Amino acid sequence: MAATRDLWGKNFPDDDIPPYPCPECDRGTLRCVPKSLRQMTSSNWNRALQEGFISPPDVVANFNLFLQCGITKCGTIVSVHGDSQLMERNAWDREEDRFFDLLTPHGMDPAPPLATVPESTPEHLKIEFSTAFALFWIDLGACANRLRIIVEKILDHQGVKAGVLAKRIEAYKTAQPGHADTFDALRFVGNIGSHEGEASREAVLDCFELLQDAIAELFGERTTKLTGMKKRIIAAKGRV
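Given the sequence above, the corresponding structure tokens read:
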């Protein structure tokens, strides 16, 4: 999910909304509900426009729109809200296509998943992931901190003794050195989010991608399933 970096930019044109994954079925993609985009500007912006202090491209409006899963049997609706600003295209074929609205989301509900969470993942961890997905659009620092909390709770689930996170991860290296390095990376980014109140978009996306790989092993039993598949094919000499 997070590996598809072009999906998770800070903003997007109103006529080119990214095909986000559905937060409910995790199979379909979200499409803009026709004519659902609504934009409004505050009185201050309108007054400045009327008095000639600013021009239309300088105005920041509020928007909301709805996205819907493209799979009919699912049809999940996601509400999106944020800011929009009139922008001029670098090139256009027709004069009427010269301008577009650049949409910057400040919230999605329910938020699209930035990582695939195995069905067998404990419910309390699924809730933490959903919270992290939502915070991605609201506050990257808080999102990074939530990923750090997820690491803590995974270690709880793995039976690692409570204490300072760095020491818990060090203790975990004996059993799972690869995952321990992943958790250490998330700890550092989470610390920045906690202490500085912010984190880079790229760092947070890296964390989601790393964490997705770890939970595929820990809760999805990916390696075990792949090993079984190989043995089954070899035993049958390809006649599966």
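The longest strand covers residues 77-88. Try to locate this feature in the token string yourself.
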